[in-house]
Amino acid sequence: MAITPATVAWLQALWEREATMPGLPLVEADETALAHALAVRSVGGEQRILDTQRDRITNADRKARFEFVRGAASSDAAERERWFRALEDRLSVNARPGSWMAEAVESSAACGAIRRADPQVAGHAAGGPPDRRSVLRCQLDA
Predict the structure, then answer these.
(1) CB-side neighbour CA atoms (13 Å) of 120
(2) 3-class DSSP string for the chain
(3) Which of 14, 24, 63, 95 could link 57 by a cystine bridge, Cβ 3.0 to 4.6 Å?
């Protein structure tokens, strides 16, 4: 999990298409994963990154999936909370393809892990309330 400033900067350069990995071109799915990874790391300009990535996606289904997952990857704690509250409604949960749910929960879990690993990341509150993601995981497994 990349949390050092140098590694995160390199990931951002990859996503910005300013850096490359020789022999390993990035495809849309790679750039989408990078956009989510950068957003949860609060690199600055998260909304621009997410908006730009949304605009890069050409397939309507992948774009809808990206928009769905976007709320879970937000650096804004209130937005993430709204996203999880919407999931508490079983109808909302069942209205989305399962793989979208898994991706969103993974993004959110990564967000929580990164925030716990780096107390300087905005929105981190040590000793805060119970983790809603754990509750959601139990509900999804039921």
Answers:
(1) 4
(2) CCCCHHHHHHHHHHHCCCCCCCCCCCCHHHHHHHHHHHHHCCCCCHHHHHHHHHHHCCCHHHHHHHHHHHHHHCCCHHHHHHHHHHHHCHHHHHCCCHHHHHHHHHHHHHHHHHHHHCCCCCCCCCCCCCCHHHHHHHHHHC
(3) 63
Under a CB-based contact definition with an 8 Å cutoff, are residues 15 and 46 in contact?
A: no
Among residues 82, 72, 81, the alpha carbon closest in space to that of 39 is found at 72
Q: Is the pLDDT of residue 15 over 90?
A: yes
Between the alpha carbon of residue 60 and those of residues 51, 83, 94, 98, 134, the distances in Å are 15, 21, 20, 18, 31
Q: Name the more confident of 114 and 120.
A: 114
Distance (Å, whole) CA 32 – CA 107:
12
Q: How confident is the model at residue 60 (pLDDT cuts 50, 70, 90)?
A: very high
